[in-house]
Amino acid sequence: MVRPVISRKVGYKPEVSYFKPRGIPMLDLTEVHLTVDEREAIRLADLQGLSHEEGGELMEVSRATFGRILRNARKVIADAIINGKAINIEGGNYEIVIKPRIFMCNTCNHEWEESPGTGRPEECPSCHDDDITRK
Predict the structure, then answer these.
(1) What does the alpha-carbon distance between residue 111 and residue 132 come to, in Å, rounded to a whole number?
(2) Is residue 56 a contact partner of residue 66, using CB atoms and an 8 Å limit?
(3) What is the pLDDT at residue 54?
(4) What's the predicted TM-score (pTM) here?
(5) Max intra-chain CA distance, the chain
(6) Mean pLDDT over residues 63-89, rounded?
(7) Are residues 82 and 44 in the same domain?
(8) 44: exposed, middle or buried (C-beta count within 10 Å: 0-12, 13-18, 19+)?
(9) What range does the domain containing 119 cover?
(10) What is the distance between the alpha carbons of residues 135 and 27, in angstroms, rounded to a whole number?
(11) Digit-coded pLDDT (tens) for 87-101
(12) In a domain, 108, yes or no
C-alpha cells in the first residue's frame, strides 16, 4: 500500500527560480533540479536558522520528513556548486500558504508585521530594543 503524499506548506515564493555559474554558456551546462519545497526547507533551516521541528511545523510535515527534504536540497545545491551545474527550481508537492509574521517587542509591547522571507527583525521599530518574540 502506498502512503498518500501530503502537500508541503511553503510560506514564500521568490521570483528567482534559476541559478547558473557565471561564465559558462547555457549550452555547456548540466542542470540539477531543486523542488520548491526543498528551497523552502533551505530557507527555513539555513537562512532563518529554524530547527527541524520548527521547520516541520511550518511546512506541516514531521521533523523527520523535514530533515529528509533538507538533506536532499543540500545535496542538490552541493552538486551544483562543486560541479558547476545550473539549478532549476520548480515542481514538488507543495502549496503556497503565506501567513503574516507578527512580532512583539518584550520591552515596549509594540506589535508589528514583517513580510515573509525577510528574516527575523534585528530590533523593534518603535524602541529599537532587540528583545523580540514572534507571535
Answers:
(1) 10
(2) yes
(3) 95
(4) 0.72
(5) 57
(6) 97
(7) yes
(8) buried
(9) 101-134
(10) 48
(11) 999 998 899 887 778
(12) yes
